[in-house]
User: Fold this.
Amino acid sequence: MSHSLSGYKVAIVVGNGFHQNDLTDMQKAVMAQGGTPRIISCETGLVNGWVEGGWGHNFAVEEPLSTALGSDFDALVIPGGERSIQKLKLTPHSKRFLNSFFNAGKPLALMDEAVSILAHSDHMAGKTMTAPAVMKDMVVAAGAVWDDNNISMDDHLMSVTLTDETRADVIGSIIAFFAEKLHANAMMHAERAA
Assistant:
């Protein structure tokens, strides 16, 4: 059964050098399902994308990572991009923000290199995850179980790898995953309140 993202806010966390197509396609997919995507960044004012080996467009930062609260959002996605992920790893607020989603059991999706950010938040051990093949040793060394598929789901965590050919299908899977988890969380909260 499919559910929409109507009424839900999705945080998209990036630093300069994020994979621009990951962000723009994710934004469009969230909005198409009635959700509200918000760009959260460690950068101030504008954050710069990366496309095909060079700098892409600037995007307005809708909320600074330094003041963003996980409790204000329903789901989290971190696009890939080596430069972006390195910046996020150096920002202490990244760990705080990410931890709030884990602690609340909210759905989150990590694209490509974004998987490595989990090693800094102590949440990788025991998880089944996928990432670009060059990251396999790091993922296993951090205590995770390697998954050779391009989509891996472990409870409320989804990790994915994308190519231009698979991007639409993978992002569609993230949207379906978010909608399913958010619907299940809403049903669980409703039952507790009853």
